[in-house]
Design goal:
globular, disordered C terminus, alpha/beta, 239 residues
């Protein structure tokens, strides 16, 4: 499937917008702390979804190394249950069992290798919607670098997620302008947030994943009670 071509002017504009900087990270964190607290029944349930196509190998390894931080950040708030969802190869898309510890998630991720194929983001969003229908879901974290699907379809499902109170936090690996448009819209429709990153910003990704996990486990009050550097930055903005 061919990716939609944007005008040179549009590409330049989007590239400029997507530069990861301290101010953009601050803006993202500000969005997180302004979100309404997760509903009590939804707290502690989060889907961690990743694009496992071949172009993602380098940052998949980073994600494997950092996922434990999500559990560490949420440990003082309460139990964090995470389900790993990924796609790769020819129409392969899978969801793991729910796990509530870092070792369990790490074990699942280490058994997966990246394979060539097209994106299957619609399946990820549809799965999150189905999970939210079974039991309230606080957040969907998605990490990917491209988008090769129908944008209207993705936006339609994202809108349904938003109506169910599921906030999508979309972490964009790289600078694909077409993907950025879709990722930003998914985040907007769900009331979540978008942030670009690259393999050189692992530290920022670590802090942001921890912030989202804390939100998923306990909402804004949990962020206020946290002692991490990220939480302190949020509290400083609140004063």
């Amino acid at each position: 499937m061919k990716k939609t071509k944007l005008s040179r002017q549009g590409e330049m504009s989007l590239a400029a917008q997507s530069k990861s900087s301290g101010s953009e990270i601050d803006a993202f964190l500000k969005q997180v702390r302004q979100l309404a607290p997760a509903h009590d029944a939804a707290r502690g349930r989060m889907i961690f979804a990743l694009d496992a196509t071949m172009s993602r190998q380098a940052t998949w390894d980073i994600a494997c190394a950092l996922q434990g931080e999500m559990f560490s950040a949420a440990a003082s708030v309460g139990n964090l249950s995470v389900q790993l969802v990924y796609f790769r190869g020819h129409r392969e898309s899978k969801a793991s069992r729910w796990v509530n510890n870092a070792e369990g998630l790490r074990g699942l991720m280490e058994r997966i290798d990246c394979r060539g194929g097209l994106t299957q983001i619609a399946k990820v969003l549809s799965h999150a919607k189905q999970e939210a229908e079974k039991q309230p879901l606080a957040a969907l974290v998605y990490v990917g670098d491209s988008m090769e699907e129908n944008m209207d379809e993705l936006c339609g499902i994202a809108g349904e997620l938003g109506l169910r109170g599921v906030k999508a936090f979309v972490f964009h690996d790289g600078r694909d302008a077409h993907a950025e448009i879709a990722f930003r819209e998914i985040a907007r429709l769900t009331g979540g947030a978008y942030l670009p990153f690259d393999r050189n910003s692992a530290g920022d990704l670590k802090a942001l994943l921890a912030a989202v996990a804390t939100y998923a486990a306990g909402g804004r009050k949990a962020l206020e009670a946290a002692s991490s550097a990220t939480a302190k930055r949020l509290l400083a903005d609140m004063r």
